[in-house]
Backbone:
């Protein structure tokens, strides 16, 4: 799961050191150095660079890592950096992105750009994206992640842990696993800590919470914010009207879309051209230029 908000490019020591290498154009050293830094650090450096150096640095980031870096950047920058790489690399990066993060990027692009990125998807990822895109914007279903850990209630704790180990790296979060019946309906959930502390032979059904908190695919994301705040959850299961589990929605999905909706309302209130990034990711003078001088009164009061 990525950070809840796009990264604020502050000068931590790793960011300073990496930025210095870029500005001095020490590309040979950078080739190895980029592999040592976390996605958030790489994103922070990218946001501090001029466009030419930004593209050069991003071109050095391996495809799988690049897919992890992009969600920390404003959506327009994501698209620009993607299109700057060779098409075969762009295709791999887009396919490596988490479905929910890819969907959020697509929703911020014009139709022509959407079609360019969709064309790069594998048949499997295209099917997932088409499924998510069939839901209304701002709905839970549109930004859910279809991949999650599903357990059989008759499994033992040791079997469940083995499943988590084998599949966990490909899932967005594993702190909670979900128990489904034979029809795929959600019947309970088990926290990872419970599995770790259980006796190896103990059945999953003895460990699971049979009253799991869930949201519907048709719910609006801004309406489920309160659930995440109240229960301090990183993710919640998503079910359809029949109770069949379809995926999970994460706290960063919910907060990101809720923030975008609030930003749009503020833009309507401001009444001028739209920003290319959320209010809180835009510098004051850039926002003032786009909003009109009268809006400064809201800041200087």
Residues:
């Amino acid at each position: 799961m990525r950070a809840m908000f796009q990264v604020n490019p502050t000068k931590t020591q790793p960011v300073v050191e990496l930025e210095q290498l870029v500005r001095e154009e020490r590309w040979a050293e950078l080739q190895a150095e980029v592999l040592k830094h976390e996605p958030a650090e790489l994103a922070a450096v990218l946001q501090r660079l001029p466009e030419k150096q930004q593209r050069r640095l991003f071109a050095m980031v391996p495809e799988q890592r690049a897919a992890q870096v992009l969600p920390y950047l404003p959506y327009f920058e994501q698209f620009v950096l993607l299109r700057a790489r060779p098409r075969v690399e762009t295709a791999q990066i887009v396919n490596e992105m988490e479905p929910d993060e890819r969907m959020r990027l697509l929703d911020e692009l014009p139709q022509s750009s959407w079609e360019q990125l969709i064309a790069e998807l594998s048949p499997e990822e295209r099917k997932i994206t088409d499924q998510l895109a069939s839901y209304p914007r701002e709905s839970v279903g549109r930004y859910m992640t279809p991949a999650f850990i599903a357990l059989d209630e008759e499994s033992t704790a040791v079997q469940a842990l083995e499943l988590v180990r084998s599949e966990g790296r490909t899932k967005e979060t594993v702190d909670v696993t979900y128990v489904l019946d034979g029809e795929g309906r959600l019947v309970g959930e088990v926290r990872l800590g419970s599995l770790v502390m259980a006796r190896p032979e103990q059945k999953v059904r003895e460990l699971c919470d049979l009253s799991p908190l869930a949201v519907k695919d048709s719910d609006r994301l801004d309406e489920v914010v309160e659930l995440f705040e109240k229960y301090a959850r990183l993710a919640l299961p998503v079910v359809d009207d029949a109770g069949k589990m379809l995926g999970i929605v994460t706290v960063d999905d919910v907060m990101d879309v809720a923030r975008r909706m609030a930003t749009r309302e503020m833009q309507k209130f401001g009444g001028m051209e739209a920003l290319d990034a959320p209010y809180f990711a835009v510098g004051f003078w850039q926002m003032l230029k786009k909003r009109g001088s009268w809006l400064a009164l809201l800041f200087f009061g």
